[in-house]
Each structure stands twice: as C-alpha cells, then as structure tokens.
From TrEMBL:
Keywords: Allosteric enzyme, Glycosyltransferase, GTP-binding, Magnesium, Nucleotide-binding, Transferase
Binding site for 5-phospho-alpha-D-ribose 1-diphosphate: R83, R108, D134, P135, M136, L137, A138, T139, G140, H141, S142, D205
Gene3D superfamilies, A to Z: 3.40.50.2020
Record-stated family: Belongs to the UPRTase family.
Function: Catalyzes the conversion of uracil and 5-phospho-alpha-D-ribose 1-diphosphate (PRPP) to UMP and diphosphate.
Pathway: Pyrimidine metabolism; UMP biosynthesis via salvage pathway; UMP from uracil: step 1/1
Species in which this protein is naturally found: Niveispirillum cyanobacteriorum
Domain of life, source organism: Bacteria
Protein name: Uracil phosphoribosyltransferase
GO BP: UMP salvage; uracil salvage
Length: 214
C-alpha cells in the first residue's frame, strides 16, 4: 500500500489491478472503459473511506431500540476534476449518496501542457473532508491547480485526499512539492511521461476514451 514516495498509497488489491489492466487495453470499448472506471472508483472509495468517523443514531430494529453506528455523509465532498474525474465521482457517490459534490473544470492546453480553468462550483469548506478525483496524475499541474482552487475556497490541505487511477513519478513529485500534506491514493505508479506528457504505459487520453471524443 505505502510506496517509496512519502504520502503516496498504491492500491494493490487484485480486483483493482485486474480491472485497470482491462482499461489499459486499447481495444476496450468506450462503454467497457467507463464501466471499469466506475467500478474501480467504488473499490478505491471503499479503501479511502476506511477511517471515516462514525457517530451513532438511535434507531428501532424490529426487536428493540439501538444506538447504531452511522457516518455523516454530508460531511464528505467528492470533487471530480472535469471531465475525466466525473466517472470516478459516480462510483464514489454510489458509496456515499449523501455526500456533496463539487466540480473543478480544467483542461490541459495542448501546447503548454498547463491546466486551463473553466468552471468552479464547490460546497462549503467548513468541517468537510474533500476527496478530489481524477484518473490521471501526469505532470501533476492539474492536480496542483485543483488543490490551489480548494485552498482559495477555504479548504485546508489536511481536509483533502487526492485519488488518481494512474500516476507518473514526475506528477507525484510535483504534487508533493506543492502540497506535501495531501495524501495521494492511486492504483498504479507507472514508468514515466513521454514527450507529449502522456503517461507510459498509461491508458491514453482518459477523457477521450471515457466520452468517445478525439
Ligand atoms: O497531470 P497533468 O499533466 O495536468 O494531466 C492530467 C490531466 O489531463 C487530463 O485531463 P484533460 O486535460 O485531458 O481534460 P479532459 O478530462 O477534459 O479530457 C486528466 O484527466 C487530468 O485532468
Ligand atoms: O496520459 C495522460 C496524460 C494526461 N491526460 C490523460 O488523459 N492521459
Ligand atoms: Mg483529456
């Protein structure tokens, strides 16, 4: 789980690894690719929410009253980085339907490889844990920008967890240099970036493969 990088956790669960391999296959259909990402997000979400605080709520079972353990779903915010993060958010929202959902719209400029922001809509920061999701951590600039946006909105680094499907070492380094206290959870730490800043071996352009665009 823990990796050689500080604050980077690699999910080595066989189901996650198997489904990721299916996604990497370039012959995978758009429909299959989306379905697999949603399923992996659900599995990663199960691990990432392991230490959520529990409170109790008094309920009546058919036999007697009891103080039953519950999570306060609305204390959680799921924030996808658009577009590709949306499908991961679907998986997480299925796990915690009461969670709030924010959106940060970014696209990577093809020339500069730097993120361009086009939308920010976020729930209140107060007392919430924010799970930021994006399938690809490549150069890391999009993820750094998204955490900067959260910070400006009043969310502290200690309130944020970042979940990426596939990460490049370059991106992990850049992200941790900017936000060392934000843990990164990923399913794979790949080899490197190519000359177009794509992750190798990676899975190609996540947004295009998810939504059938080019
Ligand atoms: O780490 P970085 O080098 O910044 O790259 C990663 C970003 O690139 C992809 O999005 P893209 O810009 O293709 O937008 P899209 O989701 O709309 O396709 C991906 O989903 C990340 O947001
Ligand atoms: O490999 C990469 C890098 C950035 N964005 C993607 O979708 N894939
Ligand atoms: Mg894209």
């Amino acid at each position: 789980m823990r990796s050689d990088f500080p604050n980077l956790f690699v999910f080595d669960h066989p189901l996650i690894q198997h489904k990721l391999s299916c996604m990497r296959d370039k012959t995978r259909s758009t429909m299959g690719f989306r379905q697999l990402l949603r399923e992996i997000a659900l599995l990663m979400g199960y691990e990432i929410t392991r230490d959520l605080p529990l409170t109790t709520q008094t309920i009546e079972t058919p036999l007697c009253p009891m103080d039953a353990p519950v999570i306060e779903g609305k204390k959680l915010a799921v924030v996808p980085i658009l577009r590709a993060g949306l499908v991961m958010a679907e998986g997480l929202m299925e796990l915690v339907p009461a969670a709030r959902e924010g959106h940060i719209g970014l696209y990577r400029d093809h020339e500069t490889k730097r993120p361009v922001e086009y939308l920010v809509k976020l729930p209140d920061a107060e007392g919430r844990l924010f799970i930021l999701v994006d399938p690809m951590l490549a150069t890391g600039h999009s993820a750094v920008h998204a955490v900067d946006v959260l910070n400006r909105h009043g969310v502290k680094d200690s309130q944020i967890r970042f979940m990426a499907l596939v990460s490049a070492p370059e991106g992990v380094r850049t992200f941790h240099a900017a936000h060392p206290d934000v843990p990164v959870y990923t399913a794979a730490l790949d080899s490197h970036l190519n000359e177009n800043a794509y992750i190798v071996p990676g899975l190609g352009d996540a947004g295009d493969r998810l939504f059938g665009t080019k």
